[in-house]
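To illustrate the input format used throughout this study, we show a single complete record. The first block contains the structure-token representation of the backbone; no residue identities are included at this stage. The design step must infer an amino acid for every position from geometry alone.
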């Protein structure tokens, strides 16, 4: 995981939700896919989810069966 992020949650598959702590990623929420990890610690396996934690929480909803 790039140094500009810290983990805030994980899923049962070993993937991590992260929050940006520096630069243009500050406060942004990303999904880190461990299966796509490479040795470069670049952003190729990180997916933008929300601008901040509030936007992320607002985007969550109950699953519909």
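Output of the design step:
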């Amino acid at each position: 995981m790039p140094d500009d992020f810290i983990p805030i949650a994980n899923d049962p598959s070993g993937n991590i939700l992260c929050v940006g702590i520096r630069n243009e990623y500050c406060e942004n929420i990303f999904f880190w896919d461990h299966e796509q990890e490479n040795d470069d610690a670049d952003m190729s396996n990180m997916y933008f989810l929300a601008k901040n934690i509030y936007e992320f929480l607002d985007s969550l909803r109950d699953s519909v069966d």
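Structural context for interpreting the output: Strands lie at 5-10, 16-20, 29-32, 46-50. Residues 32 and 43 are 9 Å apart (CA to CA).
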